[in-house]
Design brief:
Largest interface: A-B, 42 and 43 residues
Number of strands of chain A: 12
CATH superfamily of the largest domain in chain A: Response regulator
CATH architecture of the largest domain in chain A: 3-Layer(aba) Sandwich
Number of helices of chain A: 13
Number of domains of chain A: 3
Largest sheet of chain A: 6 strands, parallel
Radius of gyration of chain A: 26 Å
Oligomer: homodimer
Structural class of chain A: alpha/beta
Amino acid sequence: MRKLTMKDIAILSDVSQSTVSRVLSNHPHVKKEVREKVLKCIEENEFLPDINAKIMRGESAKILGFVSAGFENPYYLEMVGYVEKEARKRGYSIIVMNSEDDELIEKYHFKELLTRHVDGIICAPVSLKNLRFLKKNKCPFIVLNENIEWTDSFYTVLSIGGIQVAKYFKDKKFKKVAYIGEEKSEKYKGFLKEINSENKINNIEDNITFNLGKNLREIISKKVNKLNLSCEAFFFSSDTIAFIFLEEAKKIGIDLRDKELVAFDNTLISKVLQISSVEQPMELLAEKGVNLLLEKITKDIKLDEIYNVGLYPKLIIR
Amino acid sequence: MRKLTMKDIAILSDVSQSTVSRVLSNHPHVKKEVREKVLKCIEENEFLPDINAKIMRGESAKILGFVSAGFENPYYLEMVGYVEKEARKRGYSIIVMNSEDDELIEKYHFKELLTRHVDGIICAPVSLKNLRFLKKNKCPFIVLNENIEWTDSFYTVLSIGGIQVAKYFKDKKFKKVAYIGEEKSEKYKGFLKEINSENKINNIEDNITFNLGKNLREIISKKVNKLNLSCEAFFFSSDTIAFIFLEEAKKIGIDLRDKELVAFDNTLISKVLQISSVEQPMELLAEKGVNLLLEKITKDIKLDEIYNVGLYPKLIIR
DNA sequence: TTGTAAGCGTTATCAT
DNA sequence: ATGATAACGCTTACAA
């Protein structure tokens, strides 16, 4: 059974197709009786206009793309929820794509979204090159959770998280502390800086750092024996790392639960583990990001101003 | 700057627009040199064809809708990941929507998806009425994680999970056991049935049941004092419930960690809590579901056969 | 082998 | 107040 079109409704209600269109778009010059007759017919037949035809006519597709580098981290999946919610509030749908940390897949997705005439793209990107591709194609987009100078980005100021943890360790007067996690991270930099600042009271006796990779557990299990147990406090660069590290430590007979533990992300993991964690303002980031994007799309003013919005994380003590 | 169209490419490469179209769709009757000339021009200008025009011509939109009743349960967000992956494998994109357990929002989403001419819909539905609406509109769809007799559904056989737990409790020779969770659930039914079967060796001394609601924690905190501490084993109807229950119990000074605890869903929660849990085969469900849907869409044979596929869960002991 | 033209379902511009 | 018609970007039947 073919889908109903305006033409069908026109025939059924004995008017021209353009009148049906006028009724649907609340055009003023339609006789009341005619409008009612047509509306009744539309109701009865549950007619749904074809958005693709509208898009072809130049109307907004009312749809955004959300392209994430990956979904392994529950964190990005959470983002999907927030982005969807925010977009929906404003009457937009979202196409969700996973680029699996692969530049080519990401490019493929971006192309696909351009073909579909999305109004804009929200992304946690893999490749700057691909972002430039979007720019070249005049496709509005924002970057979530990474600070890219030359384009609109909404991100957590990770260094502040590190500083917060360091301050907390100082307050607690821990003499020996440890950092465990990503080598090149603003979290670590902030932590280091604050620990070594003027009112220095403690030392990082242990820093077990590594680069994130596919098999995180393996990477960690190799490092776990390097633990310096004289440390009183441990700062993990993510909840996931904290979780795996604790498990691996347990395997070799080390229980860290009586130490002061602080992780990062404040996901379900740290909630369940009941350890402190630095919370990233994901919902707010998504909210602000989607809003700016839609602002730029709908108002298309100030299209030349770049917004780099860094939000502060918050240490949640448990 | 306007988006490039086939017409532009045609002018640039000095051929007709239909020749460009033929080149792009690998039509056989195109002279080799012409094809190369056109392809070069397409390359150089990074031309992307407009999919909406194709859809209007009757081509498949190559897009599916995923409508979930809600995303509070991390479980459904996980589904997004699996569905996206499976759809992508087959060259389809997905539009993700949250109906927030609301019949009207769900209807709204379904209409929206029909308007967009999606090829099909995957849903964890709120309302049977809305599913009938889809059916009436001849929109192919499958139901994920609920068994609805009259339509294609892919779900976990929850009662089997309950039975598995009961058997486990029997094996362990626990005399007094408890069920804590959803009142009306196949999990509970299966559990009860097996506990009370021929080779009965134990009793359910405690069953704290309730209906799920918005404020789960509140519901649970009211029930937690009813705990029968003489029970040796507890079966929680979900990981989330187990987590909240344990927390609330702790608040009133009860530590259940030395009891035998089994939850349901085997999400990150039970992994982190290190308690046993019944795993639902989410990935497989998504995989099978999306595949059947696409099968029905592309082959459109056997459109009258209904597939109700129940997969068994698996008790993970920790 | 290639070009011309119709048509997909809308909206908007003209007439009437 | 309403109807006819062009146009959006594409595919395809038909003509050349």
